[in-house]
Amino acid sequence: MSKKDTHQKDAEVNQAAGNGRRDFLRQSTLITALSLSPGVLLKAAEANIDDKFAAYFEKIPLSIEVNGLKHNLSVEPRVTLLDLVREQLALTGTKKGCDHGQCGACTVHVDGQRVLSCLTLAVAQQDKKITTIEGVSNGKNLHPLQEAFIKHDGFQCGYCTPGQVMSGIACIKEGHANTDDDIREYMSGNICRCGAYHNIVKAIAEVNKEGLQP
Ligand code: FES
Ligand code: FES
Q1: pTM of the full predicted structure?
Q2: Other C-beta atoms within 10 Å of 106: how many?
Q3: CA angle, 68 then 74 then 77, to 5°
Q4: CA 177, 195, 182 angle in degrees (round to 5)?
Q5: What is the pLDDT of residue 34?
Q6: Residues 6+ apart with CB under 8 A from 40
Q7: Ligand 2 center to residue 42 CA distance, Å?
Q8: What is the DSSP track for 30-80?
Q9: Nearest 10 degrees: CA dihedral of 175, 180, 185, 190?
Q10: Ligand 2 neighbourhood includes 196 CB (under 6 angstroms)
């Protein structure tokens, strides 16, 4: 091979290497741009945020009565009644079990009716009367159903117990506690992972039988 041919070959090899480097740089720049774009897009979206989306985070006034105390609050429309009582009012007796309406641990009363507070928007409770587990005792005297839970060992870990008691009180008030089968049926939305069901039924049946006004 002549000297000229050798130079030409070297030039071709160098050009191929240059192309390879350029391709590599182009690809890595593209990858970098793609990895950055979500943030860039987010910023652009934030800049053009629409009014309805902004309203979702805007606090609105809410007046409610909880355990006999009136509260004038400022609440984001997305906040559940469960998070409101636990996080804004520090009433942590009401428990968050599943947060999906499946366990009953979050049961409270709204105007005397039992509701799952994890599925209830706080802002929809304007001027309503809420009762949580902290509000069922009479001063230092426990509610009769709380006493009956203790007497009959209606709990083990106790995590489900506030919800069980709130549902149990409602169950008696609704007239759904006249037979053990009825109690099981109308308490079926309250799950107890410790399996204290048998004693929970006994406690509710006893309070119902004694005719104690819940
Ligand atoms: Fe509400 Fe489970 S936390 S039903
Ligand atoms: Fe433990 Fe019911 S007492 S979950």
Answers
A1: 0.76
A2: 28
A3: 105
A4: 15
A5: 47
A6: none
A7: 44
A8: HHHHHHHHHHHHHHHHHHT--HHHHHHT--EEEEEEETTEEEEEEE-TT-B
A9: 100
A10: yes
Contacts of 120 by beta carbon, 8 Å cutoff, 6+ apart: 80, 81, 82, 110
Residue with structure tokens 């006034």? 61
Q: How confident is the model at residue 50 (pLDDT cuts 50, 70, 90)?
A: low
Residues in the chain, overall count: 214
- Asked if residue 168 lies in contact with residue 187, where contact means CB atoms within 8 angstroms, the answer is yes
Q: Which residue ranges have their beta carbon within 6 Å of ligand 1?
A: 96-99, 101-106, 116, 118
pLDDT digits (tens, 9 = 90+) for 147-162: 999 999 999 999 999 9
Cα separation values, 23 from 9, 20, 145, 183, Å: 21, 5, 76, 73
SS3 assignment, position 147: helix
For residue 170, the CA-to-ligand 1 centroid distance in Å is 17
